[in-house]
Amino acid sequence: MEQVNLREAHYPGVHCNFAIEQRSAGVIVIKILGSDVGELGKAPMRTVAAWLEDCASVHLFIDARHVRGASIDVSCDWAQWLGRHRAKWRMITMLTGSRFIQ
Questions:
Q1: Cβ contacts of residue 65 below 8 Å, gap of 6+?
Q2: Taking CA 90 as the corner, what is the angle to CA 89 and CA 93, rounded to the nearest 5 degrees?
Q3: 14: exposed, middle or buried (C-beta count within 10 Å: 0-12, 13-18, 19+)?
Q4: Cα–Cα distance, 44 to 34 (Å, whole number)
Q5: Measured between alpha carbons, how far is residue 80 from residues 14, 75, 86, 90 in Å?
Q6: What is the pTM of this model?
Q7: SS (H, E, C) 57-84
Q8: Distance CA 68, CA 65 (A)
Q9: Is the pLDDT of residue 102 over 70?
Q10: In this predicted structure, what is the pLDDT of residue 71?
Q11: Is residue 44 packed enough to be buried (19+ CB in 10 Å), middle (13-18) or exposed (0-12)?
Q12: Of 25, 21, 24, 27, which is closest to residue 7 (Cα–Cα)?
C-alpha cells in the first residue's frame, strides 16, 4: 500500500536537516539528521504547531537515529515546546542512535 502524506516540510541547514511529514490526521513524523545547534530557529516547531491546530490528538514520531548531537539550548527549547503542546500528544515515540540524544 502506498504511503500518502497529507503535508511535508523540509528544513535543510548547514549542520542539520529536518524533514517533517504529516502521515495522517493523527500522525506526524519528524526526521532529524546531523547536529542541531539551533540554526533553523523555531521554524520546525512553528510548522508542527500549525499542523496541530487541525488535529484533536497526535502520535508524534521523532526519528533522531542520525543525530550526532544537539546543543543544550536546543534540547531545552524542544522540551519546553513539547510541554506547552502536551494536550495534543496522544503519544511521543523517539528513536535515537546515541545515548547522548534523549
A1: 95, 96, 97
A2: 85
A3: exposed
A4: 15
A5: 24, 9, 10, 17
A6: 0.88
A7: CEEEEEEEEEEEEECHHHHHHHHHHHHH
A8: 8
A9: no
A10: 82
A11: buried
A12: 21
Tens-place pLDDT, residues 20-58: 999 998 999 999 999 989 999 999 999 999 999 989 999
Q: How far apart are CA 88 and CA 32, in angstroms?
A: 21
**Residue 55, CA atoms < 13 Å, CB-side half-sphere:** 22
Cell output for 7: 503535508
Quick one: cell of 20? Answer: 517533517
Residue 101: the pLDDT is: 61
Distance CA 24, CA 97 (A): 26
Sign (positive/negative) of CA torsion 31, 33, 36, 38? negative
Say if residue 1 is exposed, middle or buried (CB neighbours under 10 Å; 0-12, 13-18, 19+). exposed
How many angstroms separate the CA atoms of 80 and 91, rounded? 16
